[in-house]
């Protein structure tokens, strides 16, 4: 993977560090820390630190893959079809800053993992098996959605 692949995510961390812990989203109910911790989860799956099964039927996964590999952005207020609880999950970190630090660590782990394992494929619960390029496409779209949610893009 190239420096260009990493540049958007490096910029994203810098933008997230400008968030105020009480900043209101433009849509949705997540706080800044909930949003960052949500992002941490997808990076942990993409870097092999957490494993999840495919949670949708194959036909649903194919439809969703067509979306993720398209130029269409996520819609505002989209819900996670695999969410087990309604509303925001309990926070796991002691602060927004700690959550951002973990996100940065998970991103670095992604690049290290896929640089060392160029043929690695990790399961996304909604989009099925993704290689490094598929994960970069997903993460870019996902991060753009949430950075926009908080007026950072």
Describe this structure in words.
This protein is mainly alpha-helical and 153 residues long. The chain has a single domain, classed as Four Helix Bundle (Hemerythrin (Met), subunit A) (Up-down Bundle). 52% of the residues lie in helices and 4% in strands. A two-stranded antiparallel ribbon has the order 1-2. The longest helix has 21 residues. The mean pLDDT is 94.
Task: Give a count of the beta strands, DSSP E runs of length 2 or more.
Answer: 2
Distance between the termini: 24 Å
Coarse morphology = globular
Could you please say which CATH topology applies here?
A: Four Helix Bundle (Hemerythrin (Met), subunit A)
Strand content: under 5%
What is the number of independent domains? 1
Strand order of the largest sheet: 1-2
Q: Round the Cα radius of gyration to an integer and report it.
A: 15 Å
Return the CATH architecture. Answer: Up-down Bundle
Q: What's the main sheet like? A: 2 strands, antiparallel
What is the oligomeric state here?
single chain
Helical fraction equals 40-55%
């Amino acid at each position: 993977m190239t420096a260009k692949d990493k540049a958007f995510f490096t910029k994203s961390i810098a933008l997230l560090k400008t968030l105020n812990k009480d900043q209101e989203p433009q849509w949705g109910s997540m706080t800044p820390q909930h949003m960052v911790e949500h992002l941490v989860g997808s990076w942990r799956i993409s870097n092999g630190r957490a494993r999840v099964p495919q949670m949708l039927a194959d036909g649903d996964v194919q439809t969703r893959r067509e979306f993720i590999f398209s130029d269409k952005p996520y819609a505002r207020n989209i819900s996670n079809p695999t969410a087990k609880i309604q509303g925001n999950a309990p926070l796991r970190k002691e602060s927004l800053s700690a959550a951002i630090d973990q996100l940065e660590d998970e991103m670095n782990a992604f690049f290290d993992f896929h640089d060392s394992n160029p043929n690695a494929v990790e399961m996304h619960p909604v989009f099925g098996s993704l290689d490094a390029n598929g994960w970069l496409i997903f993460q870019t779209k996902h991060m753009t959605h949430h950075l926009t949610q908080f007026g950072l893009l």
